[in-house]
Amino acid sequence: MDPVFTQITAIALSLLFAAAGLQKLFLRESFRQVLAGYQLLPNRILNLASLVIPMAEITLAACLIFPQTRAIGALAAALLLSVYGFSIWVNLKRGNLSLDCGCQLGQSTQTISQALVYRNVMLASVTLILLIPQSIREITLYDYGAVAFGLVITCLLYAILNTQIANANFIREINT
Q: Is the dihedral of CA 159, 162, 164, 167 positive or negative?
């Protein structure tokens, strides 16, 4: 795989995990309440999980940045995203359609939906792309510009996707 694409993917995912982990740490009680709402963990470990999960996300963010730890970080990140998707899916099957997904703590809440399951599957798949061997070529100044541009586009596309999912959920809630 071209090193420019590898860098865009690794940095974008790293930013996503770092932002998510920091947000969960700073709003730990809100995150703990979201975890409790999923009803997948025993109450006695919710406090610990509300600390361990964000720390794991921050660790994954660091792992994805460095080539030496990128493969293990990518595998762990894909696993964590899959667990998130599975947790949402389980609660959708339970009929918990008004459950806060925990994606936007401190902001307007976003309820779980099948679209969030698909989003997490997509993100896990993209994360696994980092396991593809990178081609060996010299990185040029032009490449750094391409990485910066790619990051901006990737972040904008992700924001648009999340906004579309949140809007669709909001419209669904209004209509029910």
A: negative
63: tokens are 């792992």
Tell me the H-state helices in the chain.
3-26, 28-38, 46-65, 70-94, 114-128, 141-175
Q: Please give the C-alpha separations between residue 51 and each of 13, 60, 132, in angstroms, as whole numbers.
A: 20, 14, 32
Alpha carbons within 13 angstroms on the beta-carbon side of residue 109 total: 14
41-71 pLDDT tens trace: 999 999 999 999 999 999 999 999 999 999 9
User: Phi, psi at residue 111, to the nearest 5°?
Assistant: -80, 155
pLDDT tens across 16-26, in order? 999 999 999 99
